[in-house]
Amino acid sequence: MTNIEKALALINTFATGDTEKATSLLAKGYIQHNLAYGTGRDAFVGSVAWLASAPVKTTVQNIRAFEDGDKVFLQTVYNFAGAGEQVAFDIFRFDADGKIAEHWDNLAAKADPNPSGHTQIDGCKELKALDKTESNRELVKNFLADVMQGQHPEKTPEYFDGNTYIQHNTGIADGLSGLGAALAALAEQGIQMIYTTVYQVLAQGNYVLAVSEGTFGGAPTSYYDLWRVENGKIAEHWDVMETIAAKETWQNQNGKF
User: Fold this and answer.
1) What angle do CA 257, 16, 23 make, to 5 degrees?
2) What is the pLDDT of residues 35-56, one digit of tens each?
3) Domain count, the chain
4) Are 61 and 138 contained in the same domain?
5) How confident is the model at residue 187 (pLDDT cuts 50, 70, 90)?
6) Does residue 243 contact residue 224 with C-beta atoms inside 8 Å?
7) 20 and 105 belong to one structural domain
């Protein structure tokens, strides 16, 4: 199995309840960064068993899957035991033995289409430009520093092909104009979207996923942003924002990042 196939097989155990499969895929010292769950292989397998016993079956629908070195990153829609659909980004790190050794994620409730009619998951799926993986990663790193971290906001138009930009954020319309309008509306309400630290920038071909920490309206926030790059410009964006839980509620001490 490829690492992508292994990652997909693991998340599908939430739906199948196959604890043996989950055990076979995970490293014994599995590190969990979802703060609502305990760390270690046994904790994950216990979650699979609990979901299997729930009266409502869990559903798993993978939307996009990518690989970067020893990591696989996925975009998926989950409905855990009938609790409601959630859009998620998952990152899995594989060890030298091909076992899944570490996991990070961000989840948000599935929402209605945004002002331009796009959902959190629709849009382009074609993986291409594998020879441009590193240049696209560098483009997004620079965009994060210049625009999202506010180091050179005047450079914002340089990262886009005019107003051609497809937006999947639930509250923002298409185009650079839509992004500007949304940020202005937040500012009028006294709400700031701040990116302080970028932890991971994963890439394969024309897709780049960034994992960042910051605040939204003053609340500690984890940002997962997936961008599609076309001809050296940012062309499409999906994201999941999640408020970071208070430390006293954490079920593991590995931290969100």
Assistant:
1) 55
2) 999 999 999 999 999 999 999 9
3) 2
4) no
5) confident
6) no
7) yes
Tell me the β-bridge partners of 77. Answer: 61, 87
| DSSP per-residue codes, 185-213 | HHHHTT--EEEEEEEEEEEETTEEEEEEE
Q: How far apart are CA 16 and CA 144, in angstroms?
A: 38
Partner residues linked to 104 by β-bridges: 91
Question: Is 120 part of a structural domain of the chain?
Answer: no
- For the question of whether the overall pTM of this predicted structure is more than 0.90, the answer is yes
Task: Say yes or no: 140 and 178 in one domain.
Answer: yes
144: closest CA among 103, 93, 98, 203?
A: 203
The answer to whether residue 251 scores a pLDDT higher than 90 is yes
The 10s digit of each residue's pLDDT in 134-152 is: 999 999 999 999 999 999 9
Residue-number span of the structural domain to which 154 is assigned: 130-243
Rounded distance, CA 238 to CA 18, Å?
31
Query: How many other C-beta atoms can be found within 10 angstroms of the C-beta atom of residue 111?
Result: 13
Q: What span, in angstroms and rounded, lies between the C-alpha atoms of 109 and 7?
A: 22
